[in-house]
Amino acid sequence: MKKSLSIMALLVPAFVSAGSLRYEGSSTIGKIIDDAKATYKNSTFSVDVVSESSGGEQCALRKACDLGGVAREVEPKILAQGVVSTLIAKDAIAAIVHKDNPINGLNTEQLRGIFTGKITNWSQVGGTDLPIQPYMVKAASATRDVFAKHVLNGENYGENVKVATPDATMVTTVAKEVGAIGQISFSFFSDFSNVRPLIIDEQQPSVNNPNYSINRPLFMVTNGSPSGEAKAFLDWLLSHEGQAIVKKRFVGVK
């Protein structure tokens, strides 16, 4: 009996429950975590996306999370303090409109005019006589800066642009107004039928279209080189199996 018990004791570690990983940062990258959880069972996840990309940098810097999510280039001053970034995917930032809006596409100049407040009615870009209500995400979200970098050409957002926060509410906000237009990661509205993305400069935002110009890199950040459970998850995420999960919503990197 004692021998049997000792053998069982040796087997116990094989049945220890999965460890845990704390994620904080970009709500866009949080979608990857949500998708991965269904397949990756070596860890459980605690996910906090309230602080968006800025919070992802800060939590890694303070060692307050195992993985931070940054949906833009990581600030050089953060990297200089020992934070290490790992590229996991690329993302398209779409301009979305209500499904009943007859406009199918815009060029960058027209999009800039709308978000700087110079174009205020859909009739000015070939649509119906309807006021335009543009929406942007909050300042802490990388989506806002990435969109500005690619579209606004150094100009500021117009005073008529309202804020939708958190990012995930952009879809439901635009879905309520026929005259609305919003900016959001392509991943957030793929499951909704009441909004649709605009073609920009004759390019469709898509996980399969690397030529769509409004895009950004998606990084996981750690304090120092990834190790332990964080490294195991990142290695999996960059594997064939992990990238198959990523490519459900984003452009893969492998």
Spans with pLDDT under 50 lasting ≥5 residues?
A: 1-17
What do we call the CATH homologous superfamily of the largest domain? Periplasmic binding protein-like II
- Helical fraction equals 25-40%
Give the overall shape: elongated
CATH topology of the largest domain: D-Maltodextrin-Binding Protein, domain 2
Could you say which structural class the secondary elements and strand pairing correspond to?
A: alpha/beta
Count of alpha/pi helices: 9
Give the beta-strand count.
11
CATH architecture assignment of the largest domain: 3-Layer(aba) Sandwich
* Secondary-structure element pattern, one letter each: HEHEHEHEEHEHEHEEEEHH
Walkthrough of the structure:
This protein is of the alpha/beta class and 254 residues long. It has 2 domains: 19-90 and 215-246, 3-Layer(aba) Sandwich (D-Maltodextrin-Binding Protein, domain 2), CATH 3.40.190.10; 93-200, D-Maltodextrin-Binding Protein, domain 2, CATH 3.40.190.10. It has helices spanning 2-11, 27-37, 52-61, 76-79, 108-116, 142-152, 169-175, 228-237, 240-246, and strands at 19-25, 43-48, 67-70, 83-98, 105-106, 133-136, 162-163, 180-185, 195-197, 199-200, 215-223. The strands form 2 sheets. Strands 1, 2, 3, 4, 6, 7, 8, 9 and 11 form a 9-stranded mixed sheet that branches. A two-stranded parallel ribbon has the order 5-10. The termini are far apart.
